[in-house]
Design brief:
It contains 18 helices and no strands. By secondary structure, the protein is an all-alpha fold. It folds into 2 domains: 208 residues, no CATH class; 251 residues, no CATH class.
């Protein structure tokens, strides 16, 4: 089977397992905005998610990334990789429990600290269990787990938020229980238990894995700061209500992230296994070209459907402030698009074991984002935060597209990239001004996007369909 076909099949399998969860998560935004007390309560839920996402890489030492990198590498024993990872996680979880009272210093999350501790530790366990399943090439099991986790998350949310009306507490319980079910199920079905033993612990490999994963901890934190700092700035410069509306508006752009994440799971495996192959540069160039074309088309369609999507996903009957959410979505879509390109390029740092370079570009993006948030939100409000987010992701892309091609040289069509950006920003302008014939102009721009990105998709499809 050729490498393009393998990548395509893995992408389809991951899509089956993940697209349901992503769509349900997308639809759950409607449940949260309709059943949480107001936009302020929604903001509290968003802050708790941010804190969890911020602390998960710290508690786990980002060891899940090392599981994939070294678990797929035939030069290392899977028993040693998994046993080392569990030792690291146990150490991190124990230290976190001891230090968790420090979380009480953050007044906004104080009532939820015990739940937050459980949320983080259980999420780390699920990451370890599911990522090792991927490292063992249990792609179908990984996909099935996505369906299980989706189903359980949906049920728990209905029970705790809709029926029992537990609000933010119900949200935390729902995520904890669904992650626990997922992690245990994958562990049992994959038979992970036989891969763990103290005798498998390899101190030399443990040092290598930690050296690989350590730069990924601040990298993950910096990306979270870049992605969530705008909400903190909006909350304190403006109001928690504004931050809640902004948080709700980000759910629609996350559809782009959904497409990217599904592909990235399959691509990361292919990038590692094909790292030493003869035609890797051509392979990377072809895949990136198709990836860029697909995501730009997806971004265009989401921007075009911004108003109906916003009205469906973010009902204003609970809090009228949600009516403004649609105005924040279009440029956020392009910002998330840039984040997805950065994610693709990060795979090159991973396969080349140059994670410290990923850290440097992330640091630049985070510092720029904080500076621009402080300056632009005061003057332009929420739109200033959106501009800061896009600018920081774009600068990071400029750094990475130069840096990564020094590690693995591959061709990039810069003309197509910037043409896509110009068309997408033109669509944003049309959405904001809402001229009488805006539907006609959006349709024309969508057709132009399709024509611009048609060729790389067709060329990649031909390679997938080729027999060898």
């Amino acid at each position: 089977m050729n490498k393009y076909k393998t990548l395509a099949i893995n992408t389809v399998v991951f899509a089956i397992g993940n697209i349901g969860s992503k769509i349900v998560s997308f639809l759950l935004t409607r449940l949260y905005t309709a059943n949480l007390a107001d936009a302020g309560a929604f903001n509290t839920k968003e802050i708790l998610e941010m804190c969890a996402n911020l602390l998960i890489p710290v508690v786990s030492f980002s060891i899940a990334d090392a599981i994939i990198r070294y678990g797929l590498d035939k030069n290392y024993e899977k028993q040693a990789v998994f046993s080392n990872a569990i030792i690291v996680l146990l150490f991190g979880a124990g230290g976190f429990v001891l230090l968790s009272p420090l979380l009480l210093l953050y007044r906004d999350i104080r009532p939820f600290v015990p739940l937050l501790v459980g949320y983080i530790i259980i999420s780390c366990f699920r990451q370890l269990s599911t990522q090792f399943a991927r490292a063992r090439n249990f792609v179908k099991l990984y996909a099935a787990d996505g369906i299980l986790c989706t189903f359980s998350l949906f049920l728990f949310n209905i029970v705790f938020i809709k029926w029992l009306e537990l609000g933010v507490t119900g949200f935390m319980l729902s995520v904890m229980l669904s992650d626990l079910c997922s992690g245990i199920a994958v562990w049992l079905f994959a038979g992970h238990g036989r891969f763990f033993s103290r005798k498998y612990v390899d101190k030399e490999l443990l040092e290598v894995m930690i050296r690989f994963s350590m730069p990924l901890i601040p990298t993950a934190i910096l990306w979270i700061i870049t992605g969530f700092s705008d909400r903190i700035f909006i909350r304190h410069i403006m109001t928690p209500r504004d931050a809640g509306v902004y948080g709700a508006a980000t759910k629609i752009p996350n559809l782009i992230s959904m497409v990217s994440t599904i592909f990235y799971q399959a691509w990361n495996m292919s990038a590692i296994t094909e790292h030493n192959s003869k035609g890797r540069s051509k392979f990377y160039a072809q895949v990136y070209d198709a990836y860029m074309a697909l995501l730009c088309l997806a971004a265009g369609f989401i921007i075009a459907l911004d108003i109906p999507l916003s009205r469906f996903i973010i009902p204003a009957n609970k809090d009228p402030a949600y009516k403004m959410a649609y105005r924040y979505t279009p440029v956020l879509v392009i910002a998330v698009l840039m984040m997805c390109f950065n994610q693709f390029l990060s795979s090159i740092y991973t396969v080349s074991k140059q994670t410290q370079k990923s850290l440097r570009s992330s640091l630049v993006a985070a510092i720029l984002n904080l500076f621009l948030n402080a300056v632009l939100i005061v003057k332009f409000g929420v739109q200033g935060a959106i501009a800061a987010t896009f600018a920081s992701y774009f600068v990071c892309y400029l750094i990475r597209i130069v840096d990564t091609r020094k590690l693995i040289p591959f061709r990039v069509n810069h003309l197509r990239f910037y043409s896509n950006l110009i068309m997408l920003f033109a669509m944003c302008r049309i959405i904001h001004t809402l001229p009488a014939r805006y539907v006609l102009w959006l349709t024309l721009l969508l057709l132009l996007l399709v024509l611009t990105n048609f060729k790389p998709l067709v060329m990649t499809a031909k390679k997938i369909l080729r027999r060898s």
